[in-house]
Amino acid sequence: MKKKPIEKLEELGFRVLEQIEKKTNPFLEIPIRSFSNIIYDEKTKKLILGEKTSKRYFLNIAHAKKFMQTLIIASKCKELLEENIHTSLRDMFYAVKRTLPNSNENTFDDQHKESDPIIEDLEVMLDVLREELHLNADIRGRVVGNVTIEDSGDIIHWDKLGSGGWAIPSNVEDIKFKRVEADFCLVVEKNAAWERLNEDKFWKKHNCILIGAQGQAARGIRRLIKRLNTEFNLPVYVFSDCDAYGWYIYSVIKAGSMNLAHTSEKLATPDAKFIGLTMSDITTYDLKKYTIKATQQDIKRATELLNYKWFQHPLWQRELKLMISKGYKAELEALTSKGFRFVSENYLPEKISKKDFLP
Hints:
Order of helices and strands: HEEEEHEHHEEEEEEEHHEHEHHEHEHHEH
Number of helices: 13
Distance between the termini: 35 Å
Mean pLDDT: 95
Number of strands: 17
Helix content: 40-55%
CATH architecture of the largest domain: 3-Layer(aba) Sandwich
Number of domains: 2
Low-confidence stretches: none
Strand order of the largest sheet: 10-7-13-12-14-15
């Protein structure tokens, strides 16, 4: 049986205790999360961490503070799990921040540079999501569809929440699906596009689950997508801008991200397909007048994607090279030039019926 997060935390503590009792220099072994240790697994179609690790020693002046910080946060996470309560990343920072006795040295000085990276270290050491350690980030993203869930004892109907939809929390591990009646999931990058599709009741007419990512999909959104795909075998289509950043948003949902390669098994959805705007669509739907000149940063980013292993499919190579050579990009909003309901009544229905997706 897979060990629970609290058991993994206890094992971590016992390993350090055993090293102390043996009078050896206590250390923590942590998989390296740098680019050099990130691998694209062709078999699973996911970004994963390689086997390189580093050791963090207590009796090492360069490691001692981080060693202490790691055990402090591990202890606090165990406390959260024992009390069965959740807290935010910001609250955790304040919970572990204090001045050491008889000194001017603080345990932590900065959340984003110290406590958040330590939490990621714990994730990869223990092979758990931070949400499984009861640590939550800010809520981001919305969803609507013919779905009923149970969340913290409350029954919530995603099809009865009006124009706002259900706000997706960062922790969706304990959500229980009571009813899922949908043919696919449509993930929308832009908030405005999600609102248009929701107001037009696209999800009802086409029997789908409509998920608004509000930019790069947060972890809670990606985990929700993964669960709907694996637990209910729902196809996933991603609708994003025609630029390198929109395409990368798609690839993070599909293959995982380089920063969080250690979470790909639980967050990546390799079956996802791209239904968003393409360079080819600009010609097909006569959108040239509504394009935007690509910046040097756009071209640089597109060139980087061109070399990523997970963008080597000929169709993606063609799209990326077209953008670089033509020097322009387009936002989803360009489709509004054809009419306010063009996206919901023409563009998406046509693409879905023709299965006009990019892999």
